[in-house]
Amino acid sequence: MDAQEPWQWDEPVWRGHVDRVRAGQRLAPAWPGGKRVAVAISFDSDHETIPLRDGETRPGKLAAGQYGSRVAVPRILEVLERFGVPSSFFVPAVSALLHPDEVRAYAAGGHEVAAHGWIHERNTLLAPADESDLLARSIDTLEKLSGTRPVGMRTPSWDFSDDTLRIALDLGLRYDSSLMADDDCYELVADGVPTGMVELPVEWIRDDAPYFMMERFGSLRPYTPPRAVLQLWIDEFDAARTDGGLFQLTLHPHIIGHRSRLVVLTELLRHISSFDDVWFATHAQVADLAGAALITPPTT
Ligand SMILES: [Zn+2]
Question: 149 C-alpha vs ligand 1 centroid, how far in Å?
């Protein structure tokens, strides 16, 4: 049946693919305290797991991942504390097990720890039972290390499978932050049925990786100067504030934590903090507020 080319699909087939996971109602609540814009900063603490996920075990690759935990995270936590910004850290379980003190430091700093797969696996390459098992084990691992059970997740590499939403619902998660159908939060709809799951949308534009990644033996090179990225994110924030919406950002310690790039985070937070109508919140806090705005609450 799948041997058909897409141009041969009947309407129910292409419509079915589109409807599998869809954006439902927009969830754009009033922000607490009459604030005008919500700012949700996140870090994917991948560290060594991206090379490990690919079976890449060269010490050189793993050292670049270790930099994230060893050097970048302490710097980042200091900047967040300086500006009083609660953030969300999405941590693959293997990364958490390699760096348990780091996970405890997130919790001690008042930050959210949320799920990001087991070893940064690609969900679309997995059987549903394996995807479910890995996510369940990763949630249990983070709960054990951080002291709090995660309520949200981000799929590793934003690789969202046909089964990811059902698995996340079965495991009791309240939000996902991997999809891109809006600037504001929205409810996820599965095959036409509202699920009550909140999506806190991401975008490559608001992600450090596309601007700064470098691959020695490939063609990938950083192509945007850090201060150009700063201006881009300031423009994103300013427009979100004008709209009264959400500014969400995805960063990676091993990427943003280098000296010349930490300037970007520091100056961005300095710009955002210059306004007194900003609500800094974790992804869980934003998702909970958005979830409370659901017109039809889930029946479960
Ligand atoms: Zn990641």
Answer: 19
Q: Are 51 and 98 in contact (CB under 8 A)?
A: no
Span 150-193, pLDDT tens digits:
999 999 999 999 999 999 999 999 999 999 999 999 999 999 99
**How far, CA to CA in Å, does 188 sit from each of 19, 104, 165, 184, 253?**
11, 31, 8, 13, 29
Q: What φ, ψ does residue 161 adopt, rounded to 5°?
A: -90, 175
Ligand 1 centroid to Cα of residue 156, in Å, is 5
**Four-residue CA torsion sign, 186, 190, 191, 194:** negative
**CB-based burial label for 276 (10 Å; 0-12, 13-18, 19+):** exposed
**CA 187/CA 165 separation, integer angstroms:** 12
**187 CA to middle of ligand 1, Å?**
23
Is residue 195 helix, strand or coil?
Answer: strand
DSSP state string for 17-65 = HHHSEEEEEEE-PPPGGG-SEEEEEEEE--TTHHHHHTT---HHHHHHH
d(CA 254, CA 70): 9
